[in-house]
Amino acid sequence: MLGFTHPLAGKQLVKGTIEAGESLEQACVRELLEESGVCATPRVFLGTWDSDYEGQVWGFYLMAGPEQLPDHWDFFTNDDSGQLFKFFWQRLDENPDAEWHPLFVGAINFIKMALATADI
User: Fold this and answer.
1) Residue ranges making up the domain that contains 61
2) What's the domain count of the chain?
3) For a FRET experiment, which of 8, 14, 67, 91 has its CA 20 to 30 Å from that of 99?
4) Distance CA 37, CA 43 (A)
5) Which residues of 55-87 are buried (b: 16+ CB within 10 A; e: fewer)?
6) CA 49 to CA 57: how far, in whole Å?
7) The pTM is what?
């Protein structure tokens, strides 16, 4: 699973808000490109998760991207007045470490359960 280290807020997953007139699929493509530089296509809808944080409900897709991506890379995003995000792959068979923002630990657990039952 793709994760990144935010310079101010620990390890996270790519996420964002669906803009007016945009579908969840379109938002997933846009947010991934804006925050990581990766162009990908939604393949399998994994469901929605109530984050229990400020009424936020998150939608997840399994994405198909380039066949080869590096193990780690940095990407400068214009979000939050410009931030350098450090990307890495989080193994699904390993528990998130203490550097993960707690909200994202819940999201990772949801994704693991969704992938276990998805028709992939």
Assistant:
1) 2-117
2) 1
3) 67
4) 18
5) eeebbbbbbeeeeeeeeeeeeebeeeeebebeb
6) 6
7) 0.93
- Rounded to the nearest 5 percent, the helix, strand and coil shares of the chain are 25, 35, 40
According to DSSP, the residues that pair with 88 across neighbouring strands are 3, 72
Rounded distance between C-alpha atoms, residue 94 and residue 64, angstroms: 22
Query: Which tokens go with 90?
Result: 């989080």
pLDDT at 20: 97
- Taking CA atoms, 91 is separated from 3, 63, 108, in Å, by 10, 16, 10
pLDDT digits (tens, 9 = 90+) for 40-98: 999 999 999 999 999 999 999 999 999 899 999 999 998 778 899 999 999 999 999 99
Structure tokens at 46: 């994994």
CATH no. for residue 47?
A: 3.90.79.10
Per-residue pLDDT band at 112 (split at 50, 70, 90) = very high
